[in-house]
Amino acid sequence: MPSETAQPSFVLVRPQMGENIGAAARAMWNFGLDRMRIVGPRDGWPNPKAVAMSSGAGRLLDEAQIYDDLAGALSDRTFVFATTARPRDLTKPVYSPEHAMKMAAEMVAAGEQVAVLFGPERAGLENDDIAKANAIISVPVNPEYASLNLGQCVLLTAYEWMRQAGDVTHVSEVPGNKGDWATGVEIEKLVDHYEERLEEAGFFYPAAKADNMKLNLRNLWSRMRLTRADVQLLHGIMRQMVRWKERG
Amino acid sequence: MPSETAQPSFVLVRPQMGENIGAAARAMWNFGLDRMRIVGPRDGWPNPKAVAMSSGAGRLLDEAQIYDDLAGALSDRTFVFATTARPRDLTKPVYSPEHAMKMAAEMVAAGEQVAVLFGPERAGLENDDIAKANAIISVPVNPEYASLNLGQCVLLTAYEWMRQAGDVTHVSEVPGNKGDWATGVEIEKLVDHYEERLEEAGFFYPAAKADNMKLNLRNLWSRMRLTRADVQLLHGIMRQMVRWKERG
């Protein structure tokens, strides 16, 4: 069963190689999309090579809707984007994947039925296909080298969908041990520990530079955002050096 | 000849299949990146399958720099991102590709030497590899289905590089001693210095825990973004403790 999340359909138009259909299914499902439509697949349907390539995302192929022509695939859609390698001279708005998927997210949230078209591997969408679209998505690529394949184009668009749809788990700047940051008191104790021992060891020399050296050391610890585990490790290092000296 | 644009190096760590190295080259060049480094390619180098897959981006393979180990590949780098399928329990900041490439664009514009690590196909980066990184990039994927391959991971990161590098209009303030970050080689030497001395001092005890303790210590240094001055200070601390012991 398809997921219940409202989402655009991704429509593969006359795809040639089964492998690429399978790769497209995987690319979509990586980003939570599972409504695939296929128009006139060159090698018929079902396609064993597509299945072989789709590992883990085979459900998308089982549930894919197959159409003879693009008009059929778009019959229930209210807004259609067409992806092209480079914007052609057609009077339609051209958007980046980011902008287009932001629009798609807003339209889908408002109950619209959105489709995104992807052309066949070799030639891309024909002008007749693009004529059925409301807008164009153009991936900004190196002008000297534009060689995205079908699966890659689906991947980037699906990635932008997930980002824009807000399904993106906000990957935070917070390190793994969340909530385990050392407190100010713990940092102070670390500063004191190092200062005391290094004083004893004659590190702060010459005297005229001692204050500055201490300041640098304190800055080092405080700039670093230490966790409790870090603080323990640093205490342990110093304790061990002292023990070693005392054994000596 | 590599392009003259300042840009990060993409480092493939122990890649297995030549096809994937070729796909990575294409993915990079689609978005204007052409500095590839390869660490310990499983099937040796050059790799005919990589060349066959790289159509149009073969120059990246000709110019790729090959290393025996990751430390070598990072010796001249000042900031290292590691891509992982899912953030592990290491206390490092975790960023989305978007955020990370924005940071990278700012750092590169400020003259820093940035690397992005991509792990081998099956297993991804090992903890020892990640320990050499300053921060982690995690692609936000469908939690029910995370199946990005090497080429796809390179593609999404390169895509975000192009997006973000285009957006950087002014160089933001880099904290600390601007332009004076420690390089990979300098961090390696610091790691070695502390390991050797602490070994001597009997810090890595019990033996069963030694490897883990060393990993934690390495993570501590790499997470912190040390300046050259910091590194000197930390060397100085250790040297002084040893001197103190020897005087004792």
From TrEMBL, chains A, B:
Single biological process term from Gene Ontology: tRNA nucleoside ribose methylation
Top EC class of this enzyme: transferase
One example GO MF annotation: tRNA (cytidine(32)/uridine(32)-2'-O)-methyltransferase activity
CDD domains associated with the record: SpoU-like_TrmJ
Domain tRNA/rRNA methyltransferase SpoU type: 10-159
EC number of the protein: 2.1.1.200
Pfam families (alphabetical): SpoU_methylase
InterPro entries named in the record: Alpha/beta_knot_MTases, RNA_MeTrfase_TrmJ/LasT, SpoU_MeTrfase, tRNA_m1G_MTases_N
Gene Ontology CC terms, in alphabetical order: cytosol
Catalytic activity, as annotated: uridine(32) in tRNA + S-adenosyl-L-methionine = 2'-O-methyluridine(32) in tRNA + S-adenosyl-L-homocysteine + H(+); cytidine(32) in tRNA + S-adenosyl-L-methionine = 2'-O-methylcytidine(32) in tRNA + S-adenosyl-L-homocysteine + H(+)
Assigned keywords, A-Z: Cytoplasm, Methyltransferase, S-adenosyl-L-methionine, Transferase, tRNA processing
Subcellular locations according to the entry: Cytoplasm
Function: Catalyzes the formation of 2'O-methylated cytidine (Cm32) or 2'O-methylated uridine (Um32) at position 32 in tRNA.
Subunit organization: Homodimer.
NCBIfam families, alphabetized: rRNA_methyl_1 (TIGR00050)
Family: Belongs to the class IV-like SAM-binding methyltransferase superfamily. RNA methyltransferase TrmH family.
Protein name as annotated: tRNA (cytidine/uridine-2'-O-)-methyltransferase TrmJ
Species annotation: Falsiruegeria mediterranea M17
Gene: trmJ
